[in-house]
């Protein structure tokens, strides 16, 4: 079962970033509200850009909290083979 | 010389228009006229504010740097002078424009019963409404909520989060029957009951009654008295088209606009909930009341206002929401099951878990219920409902929107006991890696 695929999750945490789908986003701000280091994730979703902030912990809190499934982990281009 | 742009409205359509105007013409003079005391905020986010999931401060997106130079005026526009190219404000001011945008949105339909004007009968249109509802919720023990769609359910869940006893009135036999199938409605209703919500099917309010000057309850059309301290109403919205109508612009249910979002007056545009937009594919003008659509329309209107010709193309409908705690995506047309011979409906759930898809490493998880329903035409995916795990919802939207040819997997999907998730994940993987253009059906 993919959700238990810890290896994939580990890779995501190490080499991924949070991507967003602006079409789903309603700018409710929950992602920014729950970011432990106050990244304005919502702004990224407005612009349709991944969270490239080097301070991002990739903790996934914004993804978990988003009520509309706007956010997901994506393998960053830097690490794509 | 820079142009003068007046935007009536201060929500997402107006903000998107302002952004587009400034991108096209950085020196433009832009006025945004809105009635609300608050700056731009997330209207759909009110549901989460009501439920206590997000603080009020977080409802305001920080976009000031993208809207530099926009002058915000808090006023009510009382009239448009289209020949004179001016708007008249309730403070007596006249604002001249070269181009005008009407982004006045929509407003909640009121209950048409005696007592509907009482202070405890509340809607959820604005941040003020949400604050009023929260205040009323603190003083009430029991609430009645009326309405069959998303907003009504948001009010139900918001009030329940504050531990009110919530009685939810549904006019029909199940929740949101125009969109959800019986199983999906049942999933939502079971979850609501588990949360302590009292459902009343086939029930409508006949009268809101008072006792010693205070709201005391509602009387149903069956004559039953349901005592309550507040009533939440979400029975639909109507476009705020009055300004356009009074100014003699062409209106129908909303303000009629062409593909460039231009009204019947050359320098007046409309976008968002108020705009009834011409769709060349159907030959009809369509109203849409979705945040993303309003944003898209605002952006297209802004470009056209600033002189860049752009046509608005209606995208395949996409509505993402949360129903009784379950993230739910509704793609395309899903409420037509059984009515058309060439459309078949396939559903799987509730306890399945989905396969991974190649571009999403981890999405939301932990839903107790996962369900997927597909509306499959002869060759194309026409619609889908994805409840719970959203891993497949983005692929399904892309496949439906780009009219991927489903004939290679149609039989497999229709086979008894087919693993929809695995078939769709493989199909998506192949479709995106082998080039969408060749796979697209002609």
Can you lay out the helices and strands and say which pair or pack?
The complex is a heterodimer of chains A (81) and B (442).
Chain A: H1 6-15, E1 16-20, H2 30-34, H3 41-47, H4 61-65, E2 71-75
Antiparallel strand pairs in A: 1-2
Chain B: E1 4-8, H1 12-24, E2 29-34, H2 46-50, E3 70-74, E4 77-81, E5 86-89, E6 94-96, E7 99-102, E8 106-108, E9 121-122, H3 127-139, E10 142-146, H4 150-161, E11 165-169, H5 182-194, E12 198-200, E13 205-211, E14 214-220, E15 225-227, E16 230-233, E17 237-239, H6 242-246, E18 255-257, E19 268-270, E20 275-279, E21 284-287, H7 291-305, E22 318-323, E23 326-332, E24 344-348, E25 371-376, E26 381-387, H8 393-401, H9 407-414, H10 420-433, H11 436-439
What does this protein look like?
The complex is a heterodimer of chains A (81) and B (442). Chain A is an alpha+beta fold and 81 residues long. Chain A has one domain (2-79): Alpha-Beta Plaits (2-Layer Sandwich), CATH 3.30.70. Chain A is 33% helix and 12% strand. Chain A contains four helices and two strands, in the order H-E-H-H-H-E. Chain A has helices at residues 6-15, 30-34, 41-47, 61-65; strands at 16-20, 71-75. A two-stranded antiparallel sheet of chain A has the order 1-2. A five-stranded parallel β-sheet of chain B has the order 3-2-1-7-19, with helices on one face. In chain B, strands 9-16-10-11-12 form a five-stranded parallel β-sheet, covered by helices on one side. A five-stranded antiparallel β-sheet of chain B has the order 22-23-26-25-24. The relative contact order of chain B is 0.12. The A-B interface holds A 1-3, 5, 8-9, 11-12, 16, 21-30, 32-33, 40, 42-43, 46, 60, 63-70, 72-75 and B 12, 42-45, 48, 53-55, 58-63, 291-292, 318, 320-322, 327, 329, 353-356, 359-366, 390, 393-394.
